[in-house]
Amino acid sequence: MNVERGVNVERDWRGLLFVAPFLSLYSLILIFPLVRGIWLSLHRVDLFGGGQFVGLGNYVRLANDPVFATSLGNTFLVTLMIVPVLTMLALLLALALNNAGRGAAAVRGIFFSSAVLSVTIVTLIWRFVLAPDAGLLGEAWQAAGWQPLAFLSDPDLVLPAIAVTTIWWSLGLPMLLFLAGLQQIPGDMYEAAALDNASRWRTFRRITVPSLRRTIVLVVMLQTAAQLQIFGQAQLLTGGGPSGASRTAVLFLFETAFGRWELGYASAAAEVLFLIILGVTLTQYWATGRASGGQGGR
Amino acid sequence: MPSLELSNVRKAYGETLVLDDVSLTMEAKEFVAFLGPSGSGKSTLLRIIAGLETADAGEVRLEGERIDGLPPGRRGVAMVFQHYALYPHMTVRENMAFGLRNAKVPKDEIERRVAEAARVLEIEAQLDKKPGQMSGGQRQRVAIGRAIVKNPKLFLLDEPLSNLDAALRMRTRVELAQLRQRVDAALIMVTHDQAEAMTLADRIVVMNDRRIQQVGPPMEIYARPANAFVARFVGSPAMTLAPAALVAGEGGFARVRLGDGAEVETRVRREGLPAGGLLQLGLRPEMVAVAAPGAGTTDAKVELLERLGERTLVYGVLADGLEVIAQDVGDSRLQVGDKVGLKMDGAAAHLFGPDGAAFHSEARA
Fold first, then answer.
1. Are A220 and A213 in contact (CB under 8 A)?
2. Which residue, B60, B131, B298, B327, could crosslink B86 as a Cys pair with Cβ 3.0–4.6 Å?
3. CB A268: neighbour CB atoms within 10 A?
4. Chain A contact for B350, CB < 8 A?
């Protein structure tokens, strides 16, 4: 539905005044740091300021840094563990809670409540759950007669443990988005499906999922971009250990910038991560945007 | 064999009763319209037949088989929804085939039926479009096509014309009339538009206030309304109901006096009328003609004129303030404010008792 509009409107500079307050703030806190970050990444900068131009030196160093490579690998791995499970769980919860009952409203609130906690609280809670000697899971394992698992010190278990923590923490928002999406589906479509003799599964596959397509894409894109920047959980639960097995890309940035004060090198890593997230998000957008073309009103 | 049989269907939402002991029997291939104002229970009744609501009591049978316990998809009914309820992400072809696929109809049979329905409804060129790319009228056809391909025993149409503009509504009305010739099934249409009901249906079920008020062929509903509600609801403009007192006297037929003192001799039998109590004289516009002042049954002042082309509706006010709608020729010279005589055709008029019950003229029997 493209409505042609008259385009002969005179350009009027006074319009700019309306956006100026936002634009200046936006420039100050977003555009300037972005440009400054790029500038920093091309210099060797330390705590004492100054800095010496090194061109792409920092980037070359990054490409040959095995610690950075491992941290990127960890980040991708944990994102892959989180996003599909989180999306599916949130959708299932939304489906289960998508009714008007008072009970459902209360349960919705309970499931959303974890989202309002800060990462500090979340990791504190999960420390109690995951700790092998006195934690909830440890006790359960022991009660069952098994050796408790060292979730936070076993290199093979530490990323799944961070993933579970993150899923528990992040479930609220995707669930709400899916609930909002479900409310948008007109009820008479389900009635038409009932008259069309569609089973529950077929109704879900052919009516609900296609109608939620945009929400699913949104949730996957938002969560991918968010989880590629995962930081607090790794920092607070494990500090990146054991021996870097849970060091994520942002944790690497943090350590480089505020541990070793190599601001230029950290900025270069940040730029690389930024480009990766941009690339992944655009690829997702492009792949799903093509498939859902031609979808309009009813 | 009768098509649909409803017996003593009752439905309440919490404390609110919406259908009270509704019974109805439809003939095979009959086209029935449920006509009534909003909240009369007509849509609820349709949804109970479709299986989208469950009745609290009563039975629903279709061609002899009891269906009120069956899920909607297994009842042998197809429904055209008011807002069409097409699946937006499926093409027209998939929309029509969806129900058949679910019913495990063989693929070539599905294709045959979809192609046939598309041909009949003239939407062959749109088969690969999605509903969002189509106009309202085309979507309406797709919705009808989706119902046709199922070969149902009963079609349910929920306000099928209400979403169309005036010109398209007239055309679609004609097409619906043609459609019912082609399909080998009974049809029920819910509407609040009496013109749709009158022009399309074999029989009209007038509903109001949770109950069926009258069931009958359109002309019978129009000519012999069962009560004051039906008389007012069917016919446009609505019938004038004038408070009237029975004049004592001899003779077999009732004579009544209106509020302004004018008397009208009806052809309604005097016996059987409720003794005492105020009656209402029912006059359709075509029963009241315009005459010179003093030459009619009574006099009135013209308050409003509606020139419809072939006739003119004259809204007159009697001396006691009662509004009476009369009919005059298309090129009537009357002006608002004119004083006119109104000639009431008492032989055709109806009488209604204090409880709304109708008493009809023998002249029209």
1. no
2. B131
3. 28
4. no
Residues of chain A contacting residue B99, judged by C-beta atoms under 8 Å apart: 195-198
Question: Burial level of A186, CB count in 10 A (0-12/13-18/19+)?
Answer: middle
Q: Which A residues, 167 through 196, put their C-beta within 8 Å of a C-beta on chain B?
A: 186, 188-189, 191-196
CA dihedral B109, B111, B113, B114 (to 10 degrees): 160
* pLDDT category of residue A47 using cuts at 50, 70 and 90: confident
How far apart (Å, rounded) are the C-alpha atoms in residues B25 and A74? 71
For a pLDDT cut of 90, what percent of chain B falls above it? Answer: 67
| Complex ipTM value | 0.84
Whether the CB-CB separation of A281 and A58 falls below 8 Å is answered with no
Task: Find where tokens 């359709």 sit.
Answer: B284
Instruction: Determine whether the interchain pair B71/A194 forms a contact, defined as Cβ–Cβ distance below 8 Å.
Output: yes
Euclidean distance between CA atoms B327 and B312, whole angstroms: 6
Per-residue pLDDT at B41 exceeds 50: yes
Within 8 A by CB and 6+ apart from A109, the residues are: none
| Residues whose CB is less than 8 angstroms from the CB of residue B147 and which lie 6 or more positions away in sequence, other chains included | B78, B79, B80, B155
How many CB pairs below 8 A link A and B? 87
Model confidence, pTM: 0.80
Tens digit of each residue's pLDDT (9 = 90 or more) over B270-281: 888 887 778 999
Two structure tokens written together for B171: 């055309």
* Residue A24 DSSP symbol: H
